Amino acid sequence: MSEKLSFPAGFLWGGATAANQCEGAYQEDGRGLANVDVVPIGPDRLAIITGRKKMFDFEEGYFYPAQEAIDMYHHFKEDIALFGEMGFKTYRLSIAWSRIFPKGDELEPNEAGLKFYEDLFKECHKYGIEPLVTITHFDCPMHLIKEYGGWRNRKLLEFYERLCRTLFTRYKGLVKYWLTFNEINMLLHAPFMGAGICFEEGENEEEVKFQAAHHELVASSLATKLAHEIDPENKVGCMLAAGQCYPRTCNPEDVWQAMQEDHENFFFIDVQARGEYPNYAKKYWERLGLKLQMTEEDLSLLKEHTVDFISFSYYSSRVAAANPEASEETEGNVFASLKNPYLPSSEWGWQIDPLGLRITLNIIWDRYQKPMFIVENGLGAIDHPDENGYVEDDYRIDYLAAHIKAMRQAINEDGVVLWGYTTWGCIDLVSAGTGEMKKRYGFIYVDRDNEGKGSFKRSKKKSFYWYKDVIASNGACLGD
Ligand code: BG6
């Protein structure tokens, strides 16, 4: 087989989900309430996830899709069997913090929560699937938000450390790939999801966000340290919402603007991969007069415990301009971007740019020289199932095929080091951005709609069989 067509031996093919978007069972077996539970579908969602509207409990007249999601809590055996049938080598999932520590600040974990994930990991291993676990995916116990103000409070370091110690000890031998915080840079754009932050009247929002970022970054280093101490086999990664920012034109002012926007995202990974705050960030804080609390011990933790690999999500590239008013905006993964006239868009306005993935892979590789893992990539689209739940989703196949070819080129022709690829939403699940079910990403259709109706029945889409072939041929069946 031509080397050009296939992926390295041992390449980790798979799919990804997050607890709050698929598990449901939000009150079962002692689970506590989490931020993600109280985010409804509908027009208030954006204000809530960005920390501008306070909704700390369920309110009359709203629908909360995470309460039941796709009920994976009760279907996980069936779902993992389907992942096994596709030949997954890895399955990325996240832990619901409030299943393990329902309030977040207890000293002892909830055994039923621990047992749930233990059973799930064992089920994965039955099919030769290596779990890849995100410790926090937009997930924070509500008690920690009400009582401590979320990640703005340094106390969360202690609670997170306890969570990590519990997980690494209990799952030693069952899990070896860990991600500390999903899309850590999302904290700046969706602080309630990323850090359990809801702003108080009159406070300095930038200061609150960067203080919370510091706490998460130190927590991530602490987790890396612990993971390595508890099991030297553990590999810990950071996780970035990636997508290169292009300048709208070659006007240096636009190039400069694009560079600033990239810095906002790389800021986090610069710390997690290189171990120190970049000068551009320190200068930015200085200009704004931000007073951030950090200790010498924090800085040495950051320095000494950098990540083993860099994982990221990629849906699209972005565009920036010095004078953005002159361009049309487009929807994107919570971040706004200008419209790129050279690219087609999804039904949700996310622009489709497979070459942008190759560019992003090269830029991250050049910047950090650490192995990479693409842990999210996919197309959210409206599916039209037949009476058996079968969907002819050629649009999804085309999107994924183009991106897989781009990453194959990045590996085989550019020499980047990529450990694996997990498509986002390998089974239909609740959208994080909009709360919709109809924005589907899966290879597996789930009978559930935006209003919470449906039987939860699973069925295979056309892309299910296609991805199975991709994995079985290690990418070669895609041709040139
Ligand atoms: C990423 C998140 O931002 O994008 C996922 O890590 C999310 O949780 C995914 O689901 C796709 O976004 P959306 O808004 O279409 O669900």
From TrEMBL:
Keywords: Glycosidase, Hydrolase. The keyword Disulfide bond does not apply. It holds the Pfam family Glyco_hydro_1. SUPFAM superfamilies: (Trans)glycosidases. Coiled coil: none annotated. The active site is at E376. Gene3D superfamilies: Glycosidases. Belongs to the glycosyl hydrolase 1 family. NCBIfam families: PRK09589.1 (NF007154), PRK09593.1 (NF007158), PRK09852.1 (NF007356). PANTHER family: 6-PHOSPHO-BETA-GLUCOSIDASE, GLYCOSYL HYDROLASE. This is 6-phospho-beta-glucosidase. It comes from Streptococcus oricebi. The lineage of its organism: Bacteria, Bacillati, Bacillota, Bacilli, Lactobacillales.
